[in-house]
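Box 3.1 A note on notation
Throughout this textbook, protein chains are presented in two layers. The first layer is the amino acid sequence; the second is a token string describing backbone geometry. Keep the layers aligned when reading.
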Amino acid sequence: MPRDINGVYTLPAGNPVVPGTVISTTWANETLNDIAAALTQSATKGDFGSSLAANGYQKLPSGLIIQWGVVTQETPTANTPYTFSYPIAFPNAVFALLGSQTSDSPAPVVSNPAIFGFVSSSQGRVAWASTAGATFGARYVAIGY
């Protein structure tokens, strides 16, 4: 199964596939078996699903999934967790959930941090240290598989 570093398939060396060549089982079977093996091990587009939206995700060939999103909460109570859903559930586990308060929240990020935590494979949690009686926002990135 000859593929180069970019994944481009090339026929085996010595393959007589040129215009006007008579197809012979002595070389065609080996070539077709090689092509079949290459196609069998190829990933389909469905293996790398994605949603490139404000709340989206990217599935990688290894099974790792990266998700991101925006969370808003109107007049939250200080230090009270707000649960949000990821765009898709992680099938196995969540490795990390990172986030930051958005710049359009009413209080400075330093004095009013957003605190993130895990809930489940389909949900995360955010809480603001204090509130100013307005809508608060945060952006997050979650990594899992």
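Residues 32 and 98 are 48 Å apart (CA to CA). The two ends are 29 Å apart (CA to CA).
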